[in-house]
Design goal:
By secondary structure, this protein is of the alpha+beta class. It has a domain of about 80 residues: ApbE-like superfamily (T-fold). It contains eight helices and 16 strands. It has a nine-stranded antiparallel β-sheet, with helices on one face. A hairpin with a 7-residue loop joins strand 9 and strand 10. The longest helix is centred in the first third of the chain and has 22 residues. About 45% of the residues are buried. The N terminus is likely disordered. The structure holds adenosine monophosphate and magnesium ion. The site of magnesium ion (MG) has 7 residues, from helix 7. The site of magnesium ion has 7 residues, from helix 7.
Length: about 350
């Protein structure tokens, strides 16, 4: 793994007693729907002399939540402004929905090694590492399959097997060449990559780096299902919610974390249904069809980039094969919810009190 983790996180975590949720964390507003990119809602919670400043808005196609604890609102706003600017910068580099460094790289597939920025080379190298560790379940070259499963289409349809097979010929992360000495990446002709399964985690790592550089001791960065928590919230662990994958708006477990990342992937955010079957945004690179491994996968560890890639792969692999990999990874834990709603916990979470089954009644 690349050394993307930061000091406080690399030094190890302090996990409190893991338990099931009793209620939404006190004093927190419910998660608001996605806003326009420029709109940011700012709120303050005070506890004695300390205050928690919270910013919410939209970035990278999802909601963000930034929290910083200190004594001076203006100073916390200054820091959160820098943190948000960093998230937006990462979005601009890694987006595939408008011109970016990544789209320029994709356009030059088949033209030999292409010079890229250090961070693009590193995130692609980490993605390849996630691919290697998960036996190809995480594969950033899955992208030619994506238009075949268009969950945004007003009339979704299933693709023909011929189209799936044609796209699958362009899927193989092992054929990407990354040179970290010269910061180049080479894609075979016809290939294109999408870092949607890992770039949010990278954004969260970078945003937390800004918090640390600015001397913040307690704060949190969340973008969609990707979270990194620094220090504590008014002396207590941060409580990170895992959503019930089948009951919108419900939380099925709260994870108390200190200096840790929590990344959740699932089949419930972006999908369409035909004849009662769900077709969603995580693709199994072995078959070309939406994955059927886990309805929700939460991976906990020191590095958000890495955990983000692994969490996506867990949705492909399912609880048994997935957990066998998690148990091999140092300082990484997981909560995997199988397609039957059964909850599988890694060895470090066995006595956590997390429920063994999610309630999937409609
Ligand atoms: P996440 O929310 O981190 O699980 O990422 C989901 C996103 O990852 C999707 O919207 C796609 O952009 C991308 N993706 C889908 N399937 C795969 C896969 N098998 N390997 C890598 N990335 C994928
Ligand atoms: Mg991911």
């Amino acid at each position: 793994m690349l050394p993307l983790a930061l000091g406080a996180f690399a030094a190890g975590s302090e996990a409190g007693p893991w338990r099931a949720p009793v209620a939404q964390a006190q004093g927190q507003a419910p998660v608001a729907p996605l806003r326009s990119a420029s709109e940011v809602t700012k709120t303050t919670i005070t506890r004695g002399d300390a205050l928690l400043r919270e910013w919410r808005g939209g970035v990278m196609g999802t909601d963000f939540q930034l929290e910083a604890i200190g004594v001076d609102v203006a100073e916390l706003d200054r820091i959160l402004g820098l943190v948000l600017a960093e998230l937006r910068r990462v979005e601009d580099v890694f987006t595939v929905w408008r011109e970016s460094e990544l789209t320029r790289l994709n356009q030059r597939a088949g033209q030999g090694p292409i010079a890229v920025s250090r961070e693009v080379a590193e995130v692609i190298a980490t993605s390849i590492e996630c691919g290697r560790i998960t036996g190809g379940a995480f594969d950033i070259t899955y992208f030619p399959l994506r238009p075949l499963w268009d969950y945004k289409s007003p009339v979704p349809a299933l693709p023909s097997q011929e189209r799936i097979e044609a796209a699958l010929r362009l899927v193989d992360y092992a054929r990407i060449q990354v040179d970290l000495e010269h910061n180049t990446v080479e894609l075979p002709a016809g290939f294109c990559i999408d870092l949607g399964g890992i770039a949010k985690g990278y954004g969260v790592d970078r945003a937390m780096r800004v918090m640390l550089e600015q001397g913040l001791e307690n704060g949190l960065v969340q973008a969609g299902g990707d979270t990194k928590a620094l220090g504590r919230k008014f002396g207590e662990s941060w409580q990170i919610a895992i959503k019930n994958p089948r009951r919108k708006g419900e939380v099925f477990a709260l994870l108390p974390v200190v200096n840790q990342c929590v990344q959740t992937s699932g089949d419930y955010e972006r999908f369409f249904e035909i004849d009662g079957q769900r077709y969603h945004h995580i693709i199994d690179p072995r078959t070309g069809w939406p994955s059927k491994g886990c309805m929700s996968a939460t991976v906990i560890g020191p590095d958000a980039t890495f955990c983000d890639g692994i969490a996506t792969a867990m949705c492909v692999l399912g609880p048994e094969a997935g957990m066998a990999i998690i148990e091999q990874l140092e300082r990484v834990e997981a909560v995997l919810v199988g397609m039957d709603g059964e909850v599988h916990l890694s060895s470090g979470l066995k006595r956590s009190g997390i429920p063994s089954q999610v309630d999937k009644r409609p």
